[in-house]
Design brief:
This protein has about 260 residues and is mainly α. About 80% of the residues lie in helices and about 0% in strands.
């Protein structure tokens, strides 16, 4: 009898392990797909790595004093930095596909109403991330680099290392891409019941101060970058409040419609 019980327990353990194993295999498959797509795009970008770096460094080179240029202080930098940029650019370009694979993996475990909400949020989050990076490139970089060139002490040549420049701009891209997710975070907080639009509106003064603190922490130590990050965060917070109010109103209408139809 004890042998039969042992056999039954082993069979039950196998049945419990199979779903976990299936999920792990699916996760591995989707990770391989994401990596493969990044590698394919990287191979497509790599021949144009120098051109991509030239475009990325344009806002700085436009304000460099005449007779100066960017420099490479490490022996392998002229080769490694453009290649690193091509890899980062390929990851950046494949964000929609990566998010799709993540969505396809978690979607079966979500309720139907959660699926209807998640997909628009994924698309919106991707668009806002790209918008943040675009804002940094077209607005923040020209102003910040012009400011740096203006305040360079007399007798000092502004000649930036290409590796330091890449680290700088990637940090800015990431900071602005994350900061532009504020509307998504606001909507999720309201949707999960963690807070209400009215409560968020009452905390507006703290949010404004927090936006400037975030700008100070996420950007390099210059006033222009900090202000240019804090102001969009505040405006996006206001946008999130507006959208969350509309979201709550729509949920209330959906809850009231069946009662109205029954009357």
């Amino acid at each position: 009898m004890s042998q039969e019980q042992k056999t039954g327990e082993e069979a039950e353990d196998v049945m419990q392990d199979q779903p976990l194993l299936a999920h792990l295999l699916e996760l591995r498959s989707r990770l391989f797909k994401m990596i493969a797509v990044v590698l394919v795009v990287f191979l497509a970008f790599y021949p144009f790595a120098d051109d991509i770096y030239a475009a990325l460094s344009g806002p700085l080179r436009d304000v460099l004093p005449e007779g100066t240029s960017m420099i490479a202080i490490k022996v392998a930098s002229p080769f490694l930095i453009p290649m690193k940029l091509a890899l980062v650019a390929s990851i950046f370009a494949t964000v929609p596909y990566t998010l799709y694979q993540i969505w396809a993996f978690v979607a079966p475990g979500l309720y139907r109403h959660e699926r209807r909400l998640v997909w628009p949020l994924v698309v919106s989050s991707t668009a806002l991330f790209y918008a943040g990076a675009g804002f940094a490139y077209f607005v923040v970089f020209p102003l910040a680099f012009a400011f740096f060139a203006y305040v360079t002490p007399e007798g000092v040549s502004m000649m930036t290392d290409i590796g330091e420049y890449l680290s700088f701009v990637l940090t800015i891209f990431f900071a602005f891409g994350v900061a532009f997710q504020v509307p998504i975070a606001t909507i999720l907080l309201v949707h999960t019941g963690a807070t209400t639009p009215q409560a968020l509106a009452e905390k507006r003064p703290y949010v404004i101060v927090g936006a400037f603190v975030v700008g100070m922490l996420l950007t390099p130590p210059d006033v222009i970058s900090q202000v240019l990050l804090a102001l969009p965060v505040w405006l996006l917070y206001e946008l999130g409040l507006l959208l969350s109010r509309r979201f709550v109103s729509k949920e209330q209408e959906d809850m009231e419609d069946p009662a109205g139809g029954g009357g």
